[in-house]
Write a structure and sequence with these properties.
Order of helices and strands: EHEEHE
Helix content: 25-40%
Strand content: 25-35%
Distance between the termini: 27 Å
Structural class: alpha+beta
Strand order of the largest sheet: 2-3-1-4
Number of strands: 4
Shape: globular
Length: about 90
């Protein structure tokens, strides 16, 4: 299944409490369960004013639909073309 990186503008994201992040996660997981196995959330990175999420989904439209249902912004969706790490230099 294709992998996507989602950029979400969330002002003050880095200052959200563990409880607030937990609530955001619960909302996302509930919608994922409704949508079925066609979309999976792998993990997210929280920075100062953004959240970057990595998802598996059949297409960008499915990612956008998840965002619409959760009410969590989805400002940019990028399909992952390749994965590299330090071993690529060997």
């Amino acid at each position: 299944m294709p992998k996507f990186v989602i950029e979400r503008d969330v002002p003050g994201a880095g200052d959200l409490t563990e409880a607030q992040l937990c609530e955001m996660s619960k909302k996302s997981v509930a919608v994922l369960k409704e949508m079925g196995p066609k979309i999976q959330w792998l993990h997210s990175y929280v920075t100062g004013n953004k959240v970057y999420c990595v998802y598996l989904a059949p297409d960008e439209a499915t990612v956008q639909e998840h965002a619409r249902r959760t009410g969590i912004p989805c400002n940019r969706v990028s399909a992952v073309r390749h994965l590299i790490d330090p071993t690529a230099a060997e």
